[in-house]
Amino acid sequence: MDSVEEDVSARVLLRNVLHSEPARSPVTRSVARNATVSLVRRSSRVRNTPGNESPQVALRKKLKQKLHESATQSPLPPSKRPRSQGRAVKTPAVASSSLYDEDITPRGLLRGIIQTEAEASLLLSGQPAVPEANQQIVETSLHSNRQSEGPSGLELPDLVTEPLSTVIRGMSRRRPPPTFNVSAFERQLDQQTGEEENDVTQENTEETVEQDLSAGCKSVLSLTLKTPFMNVQSERVGLRRKAATRRQPSVDAFDEAVQKRFERHCNQDYTVVQDGKTLGDSDWQKFTLGLSNVTMPDLTTDIVMSNTELYLQPTVSASVLKDDDDGPPEVGRCEDGKAYETNRMGGEHQEEQVVDDFQDKLNEHLSKVCETEPEPFQEMEDPETVSQIQEEKEGLDVIPSSQENEPVSLSPEELPFAPTQAMTEPVPQIQEHEGKVSDIQESEVEKSEMRESEEELPSQVLERITRRAYHSEGGAVVAGITARGRSTKSLGAEQYPTGKELQSFTNASAAEELPHLHEEPNISPASASTSPTMKPYLSEMHQTSLAEVQVDEVEDHTEGNTSKPFEMHQTSLAEVQDDEVKGVTQGDNSMSEDENIVTSPGHHSPTPDLPADEEEQQEEDDEEDAHSEGSEELSMQTPAFIRQRKEVPTPGTLRTPTVLKVLNTGPAPKVVKPRPRQKTRPASHVLPKSYVMSVFKHFAKTKVASDVYPVINEILQKYFDRLADDLEAYSAHAKRKTIEIEDVELLMRRQGFVTDSAPVNVLIEKFLPLEYRKLLIPVATSGNKVIPNQRR
Amino acid sequence: MSKKAPRAVLKSHMRKKSDIRVGKNADLMVQLNLLLVLHRLAEESRLKAFEEKTATIKVHHVKAVAKKLLKSTRG
């Protein structure tokens, strides 16, 4: 029934539409279609309008009724028309559903919009911009259009303008809303309530309305390619697509800025870290001519600087840059920048200054040590100065703290100290420095490098060593010593001679060094003088240890110590502490060495893994660190123990010469026994450590500290004792004299390893390797054979 | 990957007290026993280490479990 009615109504509607269309007013249907958007609102109006109903109107009403019925009975009919009708039905009061039929469809609406928009563009009718109002206006316009033919034609003019205004409004909305007019907004609000459309405060209201209104609804009316939500700028500024207003710095400006920065840094009391950082900027690369590795050392220097801050005082003045005279430590770290720049500019002098500056920090002992250290250091070779310079440079690179350029004369003195300051540098950094320095050296000082390369191996070694030592903060002096030591060592001490051999060797080396030392008159007397003076300060300063090392080498020719820079450090330390007298006993030296060695490993873990040179340097640093800590003995004792432990299991792994090992083994200062470093198996080792640890780690499934082995060892010892006792008891109980498998099995059962649910064989299968399993578990093979042979 | 302990060492251990003889392949069983003990030791140590929320077994972990373990593996 309903369907029939619906169909009928549809048919009727169609007919009506056909009839009605030609009867429409001249106003294009598009307008009417636009109006359909806001059909709903206007429909009521249409209804309310007093109507001189024309026959068509009456017909429309009838259709409406029918539609209502159909709507209530069923949903929208499938056909277009019925759908439109349905829509119309849904809308509260669709005055002329027939009219809307065509327009209501989306297609129709769009059509209307496009058409109306084109039309309306020309018109500017101020009307209150209110969404509702607009819609209403649209509706009214639509209605007016439709009603144009009829009595509602009176409204036509107004309605006609309405859509135009609305269209205009929509368009104006699209305009980038520059300002928000409050008054207009208020007007809009007022207008919203009222239905007056003629009140026009178009311009502002439109804009404001546009702003307020969601762009979406307006976009419906006005089809433009503009982004619909352009209006909502205030709300979504962040979403707008804007090219970031970035200023692209020009290269020149950038360079200038960098330059300025440098200058600034030089003149300011920048913390070491800051300086280092600024220096470390990649900008440096642009400026550094020969320093290819500037950046790297900068970083390291940062680290160094940060460490050295403890020693350095932040007073830096421009004047210092060039005048560094052993000045107080204030030489300033910021000089790094200056020094760096100067280095770049000029080089040697600056470098030296830098180094000197660095050394200045250690004024305390510098004065005393300076004499000896720089001299012997300088003596080393002609290129020594070069090397020194290089070192300085290195120091610069590595330790930007090196401050300003001092007179070359000062540099030698300060050189030895400079490194000491940097002692705090961590070993790895030092190593890095070394590497970098080496790079830098090569790049920077061609001369020195050339010379060095040309020089013999020992000299090269010395230089390198010195550099390394320098960077490693072992001081130029130390470096020299180490170099010497190394050279001698490298030449002859490649083996692991025994302590005595080393001693002799060192003596020889020392002797070799002596001539070097004596080259310059100052050295020997200075060394002698310094040695006594050194003593009191040794305990405090690493430098002293370093200096002592030198001194020791020269004077004492302690065994082994000199052979290796490491040893040297140690000996120096020991000497500082223990032996202020020449001819330090080997034991003392060994002790000190041990301590030093111990400390070094304690502080920096796997020294043996490092190459000898590095080790030495590290050791130096370590020693320094250890000393800086305070009670050297204490610091050395603990690591000694650890080192002993480590050394014990790996006798042959250490690269340190046997002398060092001997020293290491000598634990605290009290004990003085040169332990012959050989593959001495720990006496009470139950089982090989490798086996035990591997098994333990396998079972543990997590990381295991390697120092648990002794504990495990003890446990196993006790266990084995008990095991033996038990097995013996069991076999005795069985009146046997041999321990058999059954005994062990019984033991395991009693221990709880073997249970009914875990029989022995299962365990055997689980744990033992195949070969053993075969032996234990009889396996039947073809031919009625059992493996292993069971002769029972 | 399973390792093998030196059999001679084990034999010597078993023969500690007296010159008692060790039967054939008995030391293999002892090896098995050793593995089991180490396994238990490692397990206990690991648990102890986890109690301290450290993934690494340290010395004090092992020490703490040692005594209890030795007591338990009495025979």
TrEMBL record, chain B:
<dbReference type="GO" id="GO:0051382">
    <property type="term" value="P:kinetochore assembly"/>
</dbReference>
<dbReference type="GO" id="GO:0003677">
    <property type="term" value="F:DNA binding"/>
</dbReference>
<keyword id="KW-0995">Kinetochore</keyword>
<dbReference type="GO" id="GO:0005654">
    <property type="term" value="C:nucleoplasm"/>
</dbReference>
<keyword id="KW-0137">Centromere</keyword>
<keyword id="KW-0158">Chromosome</keyword>
<keyword id="KW-0539">Nucleus</keyword>
<dbReference type="GO" id="GO:0000278">
    <property type="term" value="P:mitotic cell cycle"/>
</dbReference>
<protein>
    <recommendedName>
        <fullName>Centromere protein W</fullName>
    </recommendedName>
</protein>
<dbReference type="InterPro" id="IPR009072">
    <property type="entry name" value="Histone-fold"/>
</dbReference>
<dbReference type="GO" id="GO:0007059">
    <property type="term" value="P:chromosome segregation"/>
</dbReference>
<dbReference type="GO" id="GO:0046982">
    <property type="term" value="F:protein heterodimerization activity"/>
</dbReference>
<dbReference type="InterPro" id="IPR028847">
    <property type="entry name" value="CENP-W"/>
</dbReference>
<comment type="similarity">
    <text>Belongs to the CENP-W/WIP1 family.</text>
</comment>
<dbReference type="Pfam" id="PF15510">
    <property type="entry name" value="CENP-W"/>
</dbReference>
<dbReference type="GO" id="GO:0000776">
    <property type="term" value="C:kinetochore"/>
</dbReference>
<dbReference type="InterPro" id="IPR052484">
    <property type="entry name" value="CENP-W/WIP1"/>
</dbReference>
